[in-house]
Amino acid sequence: MSGPDQPTIRSWPHELRRADGSPYEQPGFRPSNAVLRWLEARLPILDLAYKTGFSYPTPRNLNYLWALGGILAFMLVVQIATGIVLVMHYTPDVGLAFDSVEHIMRDVPYGWLLRYLHSNGASVFFLAVYLHTFRGLYYGSYKAPREVLWILGVIIYALMIVTGFLGYVLPWGQMSYWAATVITNLFSAVPVFGETIVTWLWGGYSVGNPTLTRFFALHYLLPFAIAGLVVLHVWALHVVGQNNPAGIDPQTEKDTVPFNPYANVKDWFVLAVFLIIYAWLVFETPNYLGHADNYIQANPAVTPTHIVPEWYYLPFYAILRSIPNKLMGVLALFAAIGMLALVPWLDTSPVRSGTYRPLFKQFFLGFVLTTVLLGWLGSKPAEGGYVLGARVLTAWYFIHFLVVLPLLGRFERPKPLPRSFAEALKGGKTAATVAVVAALALAGAHGKALAQEQEQPTPPRNSWSFAGPFGTFDRGQLQRGFKVYHDVCQACHSLRLLSFRNLGQEGGPGFSEAQVAAIAAEYMIKDGPNDQGDMFMRPGRPADHFPPPFPNEQAARFANSGALPPDMSVLAKARQYERGFPRFVQDMFVPYQELGIDYIVSVLKGYAPKPADMTMPAGMQYNTYFPGHAIGMPPPLSDGVVTYTDGSPQTIDQYAADIAAFLMWAAEPTLVARKQLGFQVLIYLIVLSVLLYFTKKRIWEPVVSHQ
Amino acid sequence: MSAAEPTRRDFLYVATAAVGAIGAAATLVPFIAQMNPDASTIAAGAPIEVDLGPIAEGQIIKVFWRGKPIFISHRTKKEIDEARMVELGELRDPQPDQDRVKPGRDQWLVVIGICTHLGCIPLAHQGNYDGWFCPCHGSQYDSSGRIRQGPAPANLPVPPYAFLSDSRIQIG
Question: Do B23 and A501 touch (CB under 8 A)?
Fold first, then answer.
């Protein structure tokens, strides 16, 4: 058997035997159709597809965690498909990017759906990749002969991190801008060449338009590079064969089942269940994993008080921050990811599956907890006990790889390995769930901390007609809210992303076409140039946007003693307050996305005499709920200031609730459509999951009963 | 009982596949629908008003409606007569000039200025028929915007429009 041509590593698909001991040969595609035979003789593409996706032998003891590969392939396709259609409407320009994303949310048919699918798709993609990686780490899927397969996976993961970051910059919100600034500045830690590299990355002296356009180009390119690497990953997998929960190689055909229908139906079932989580995020809590600050357009002059990356980068962010030296921190961040590529050589144990390694099992659990806790710490402000905790856990993260894994192989006494698959299948499957729970916890541990220097009372919750999965806007309330905006707010606050025509939209204030035209005609719009080359003012039309009260920021600040009244178009989504543990977990399952307008209501009603010991800057008012308590806006509402014609009470409380509801609608005019479609999709996915479960059960019946 | 078993099994498989296929098909809807004109484009396609006052006799102006050039021709007596004297039988796309203008407003011709061959914009006051000549492939239109020569199959279409007053029209 030995010779220079023989591979020195055994991979089970090449060693597989039939039950009678003769060599097993995988069935190929043998068409009876003459045309297909003609084609296959010239390009055996159907044979390749058949052997890859149909007759490919898979170990019959694979558990549900082995469906993650299929889920990841599916998510890559979803991200590429939704990404390509989003590009059809997105404009990569610092002046237009933010507005073009809002254009997608408001005007493009199903644009809100495609964008939420893409932004939340990134989260579930990472969720699946973490589960996939933890599975590989637990079952020793990186050990010979699967080292190349594993390293390809690490490269894919690294590219995903880069791609995700690049994509996060594109909406050009505050978090986008400052993420771009902070992450590119990592490279300034490079000795001597740091500044040159960063300037080169930016294409300028700061993050700006050249940065945005190149990030856009690369964000479009890298997913296709990932797709190419996935092909290599799958190729490598099919050469060496799949690992399995027992970590022993299948000996005979009896230890395997063909990919179709067995693995296929199992993958589809798990995918359907996974899609329920995805759909829940998209339709019920689409902004839960995002950051309110990213609904504020990028402002190079102001850094948000507490910047945090997306949840899937938090552990690495915690590692970066825990090290008090710039260069070492950056190196630790990259090393933490690169460490994964070395695992095949760091783990010295000959036993693959963690199931038969009692000590490794404990340490694995400890490692999972370490990453989850690092993620949680990454979401906290870098101060006090958080820093200490992050340092201890960062140290443990590296100790696990560099000390524990090499030593365990020497000192651990593994349990006896099963001699056959039949014996292995009698074992339990408890460990499989550990990784699932861990990664879900990681997602959940993402906090929404807002660093606040002063004690800040939490705005009380209100009851809103549009809260919850079945909520709808109250048309009368939106009309009253518009009146409050019209009579009070618009003197200082713009509403630039809204057009007058939106006021007549279904599910919104529902003004009639004539009312919309009349409202539009009240406003004067700058148009032109006319035939003489002059700009002129004309009455508004339904297609026009609300004109701003001030021509520019300087004029707005000048008229408001230095303060800038924010645009109100997405204000309801751009404000948030910390809910703290365990309330933020509860918010994921019992969707409540009205924190922004609760805050707005509280600020509107929160004016109070200043405490005696506080010095107030000139022109500022004391407000209980405004961060820092000093607000530039004088109390805007008083009883009776707006006249209602529908008999509603003309009180501050009513005004505040009405304007907040109007702003929620203005921020997300498609909210009701989203919830209605979401209900249908969730019901559909539940039905599909149940059907797939029973189909899977039926198909696997002969295999299971044979055990 | 053994005969009934495969039937139930088949039903389950068919039902699962059917539900899955419906979902896959429904998923295509947003991906296809997103390419339709968006709400802002539709709103911007609202009717426009044009003041005819400054257009001199014999002059043709171009205005834009829904991104399309609209030719507004203030026709001379000669141009009107030429358009009316043609035998309908000679025309590729027979249509009397009277049907292409508003009654009593014979001097005003309003057409969409896009060649019906492959979409180029014809040049005014060129060609053999006192109308338009398309530089792309040589189609010629007469003073009523009707196709007279060249590869184009049809007349320049008349957009929906109405006279608001003697000197003002609304297109759309």
Answer: no
- One-letter amino acid identity for A539? P
- B31 and B83 in a single domain? The answer is no
**B11/B60 same-domain check:** no
Burial of residue A242 (number of CB atoms within 10 Å: 0-12, 13-18, 19+): buried
Domains and CATH numbers, chain A: 12-53 (no CATH), 57-451+676-706 (1.20.810.10), 462-498+550-669 (1.10.760.10)
Same domain, B16 and B95: no
Residue with tokens 């751009």: A574
Q: Does any CB of chain B come closer than 8 Å to the CB of residue A691?
A: yes
Cis-peptide into A529, omega within 30 deg: yes
Closest residue, chain A, to B18 (C-alpha): A688
In a mutagenesis test of the A interface, which of B10, B11, B14, B16 is the best target, namely the one with the most A β-carbons within 10 Å?
Answer: B16
**Which among B20, B29, B40 is the nearest to A688, CB-wise?**
B20
Q: What are the residues of chain B with a beta carbon less than 8 Å away from any beta carbon of chain A?
A: 9, 12-13, 15-16, 19-20, 23, 29-31, 33-36, 38-41, 43-44, 46, 54
Residue A197 scores a pLDDT above 80? yes
* C-alpha distances in Å from residue A508, one per residue of A116, A309, A515: 20, 34, 14
Question: Quick one: which H or E segment has residue A527?
Answer: strand A524-527
How, if at all, do strands B147-149 and B140-141 pair? antiparallel
Structure tokens at B163: 């006279």
Q: What are phi and psi of A539, to 5 degrees?
A: -65, 145
B27-31 average pLDDT score: 97
Report how far residue A164's alpha carbon sits from residue A293's, in angstroms, rounded to the nearest whole number: 18
Task: Please report, as a single letter, which amino acid is at residue A380.
Answer: K
- Counted domains in chain B: 2
- HSE, side-chain direction, 13 A CA sphere, residue A443: 23
Expressed in angstroms, the distance from the first to the final Cα of chain A is 34
Identify the domain containing residue B62 by its residue range.
42-171
Residue A111 touches partner B, C-beta closer than 8 Å: yes
Report yes or no: A255 and A105 within 8 Å, Cβ to Cβ. no
**Residue A226 and residue B80: Cα distance in Å, rounded?**
66
Q: Indicate whether B68 and B95 sit together in one domain.
A: yes
Nearest by CB: B34 against A109, A684, A694: A109
Chain B residues inside the 8 Å CB shell of A81? 31
For A80-120, write each residue's pLDDT tens digit.
Answer: 999 999 999 999 999 999 999 999 999 999 999 999 999 99
**Residues B9 and B64 placed together within one structural domain of the fold:** no
As beta bridge partners, residue A288 has none
- Kindly report the number of other CB atoms within 10 A of residue A25's CB atom: 9
pLDDT digits (tens, 9 = 90+) for A311-346: 999 999 999 999 999 999 999 999 999 999 999 999
**Together in a domain, B52 and B27:** no
Q: Which residues contact A84 (CB under 8 A, 6 or more apart)?
A: none
B162 and B138 in one domain?
Answer: yes
Per-residue buried b or exposed e for A461-489, using 16+ beta carbons within 10 Å of the residue's own CB? ebebebbeeebebbeebbbbbbbbbbebb
Instruction: Say whether A268 and B19 touch across the interface (CB within 8 A).
Output: no
Token pair, residue A366, equals: 């400890």
Predicted ipTM beyond 0.90: no
Is A613 a residue whose pLDDT tops 90? no
Cα–Cα nearest to A323, from A398, A390, A397: A390
Nearest CA in chain A to B6: A698
Taking residues A529-549, what's their average pLDDT? 92
Report the CATH number that the domain containing residue B76 is assigned in CATH: 2.102.10.10
- Which residue in B12, B34, B41 has the most chain A C-beta atoms within 10 A of its own C-beta, making it the best mutation to test that interface? B34
